[in-house]
């Protein structure tokens, strides 16, 4: 046979050399994958720490969980099964040991926020929530913290009252239609309150009974950040390509359309002025005093953060308190009795003042328990182990390991909150055991902890302290479907739906509400 008669392809249509190399490449790829899995399972610094198999070898597991919105439930179940330390990614752990949690999040900690937060910050230079450099965060927080203090917010209390009074005016309209979606209405209220205290103007959402599309944008951004943050390289690749491909990740709304909304409100506020010291006027004053530290870009960032987070966190907490009271009528009745007694002896006003609400112990216990039972955040608060490593639950973790606690897990710790930690029981906060109550407060992570405590927590506390007692004073509130459970989805915030109620005016003494 002549040389040119030899075949130049295999029976499969591949050149001889390629046919020989292809199986080798496939075998090599399989060996590399197998080696990686063996390393993660048996030789990694985190090897042997229990958790889902796929979580130990790929971040796809935690990314998928974050996409579907079930982290608040799954993490509780994982810790119930595996104990205080659970592996949730190749280089990430979830921890539920209070003594170690105190070291991770306590004052002076060297644990920095993980790269998960970079997705939230994007290219912003001034952004308190996701800022990972502790020195920068500390400097920025000092500039604005006093504007969010309770003493400062009490100067705006009357405007919060105006919004709440208007809320009840609207309840008189909508209750006549039958079932009231109270979960939606408290969010409309919370958003309008942000307008009042930040821009000296309600956004008008309660007037029309709907938002302007902002809630959908915020929810889409929350979901996007929740899962994209598990693979932050994806966000930065998208950011690099966005001039060519456009914007396709909803988290960019936090830096785009929602920021534009805030810019419009700030400019409108400048044009019309204000006769009150709202948050924006205080930020303007700080900008004028220290323009090099708090420039107008930073002012816009704070206004955007108020809008983005201010309504969801407060609405989530108010829904929780109301829902669990309605699910547990025995506690609701005790609260109503306390409110009625305070009204009868003249120790509360209509609308109630913060100083008066602070003196109602059962009300305070109910709020604390709602925040414990349903913390707004349902995902881990990830931190990076600093140089020198860290020992958690007796296990050494090298620098660079990501570790965090999920408030839903911590708030169900029986050693801290008692054997009935899974139950709604406001009376745990009225215990005469001061040391126990102190520990319960110390490990309550609804607003975060340490230097990273949520700067807006006083806004939410004021709204809850004023709305909840007035709601149960004015109305007999009942779930329209008492045997049906609400639904919850955790995309950073654990949002609820299904707080549908009937409102019947109460006849109290000489006054019918």
Automatic annotation (TrEMBL):
<dbReference type="GO" id="GO:0020037">
    <property type="term" value="F:heme binding"/>
</dbReference>
<dbReference type="GO" id="GO:0016705">
    <property type="term" value="F:oxidoreductase activity, acting on paired donors, with incorporation or reduction of molecular oxygen"/>
</dbReference>
<dbReference type="GO" id="GO:0005506">
    <property type="term" value="F:iron ion binding"/>
</dbReference>
<keyword id="KW-0479">Metal-binding</keyword>
<feature type="transmembrane region" description="Helical">
    <location>
        <begin position="20"/>
        <end position="39"/>
    </location>
</feature>
<keyword id="KW-0349">Heme</keyword>
<dbReference type="InterPro" id="IPR050121">
    <property type="entry name" value="Cytochrome_P450_monoxygenase"/>
</dbReference>
<keyword id="KW-0560">Oxidoreductase</keyword>
<dbReference type="Pfam" id="PF00067">
    <property type="entry name" value="p450"/>
</dbReference>
<dbReference type="InterPro" id="IPR017972">
    <property type="entry name" value="Cyt_P450_CS"/>
</dbReference>
<keyword id="KW-0472">Membrane</keyword>
<keyword id="KW-0408">Iron</keyword>
<dbReference type="InterPro" id="IPR002401">
    <property type="entry name" value="Cyt_P450_E_grp-I"/>
</dbReference>
<keyword id="KW-0812">Transmembrane</keyword>
<dbReference type="GO" id="GO:0004497">
    <property type="term" value="F:monooxygenase activity"/>
</dbReference>
<protein>
    <recommendedName>
        <fullName>Cytochrome P450</fullName>
    </recommendedName>
</protein>
<dbReference type="InterPro" id="IPR036396">
    <property type="entry name" value="Cyt_P450_sf"/>
</dbReference>
<dbReference type="InterPro" id="IPR001128">
    <property type="entry name" value="Cyt_P450"/>
</dbReference>
<feature type="binding site" description="axial binding residue">
    <location>
        <position position="454"/>
    </location>
    <ligand>
        <name>heme</name>
    </ligand>
</feature>
<keyword id="KW-0503">Monooxygenase</keyword>
<keyword id="KW-1133">Transmembrane helix</keyword>
<comment type="similarity">
    <text>Belongs to the cytochrome P450 family.</text>
</comment>
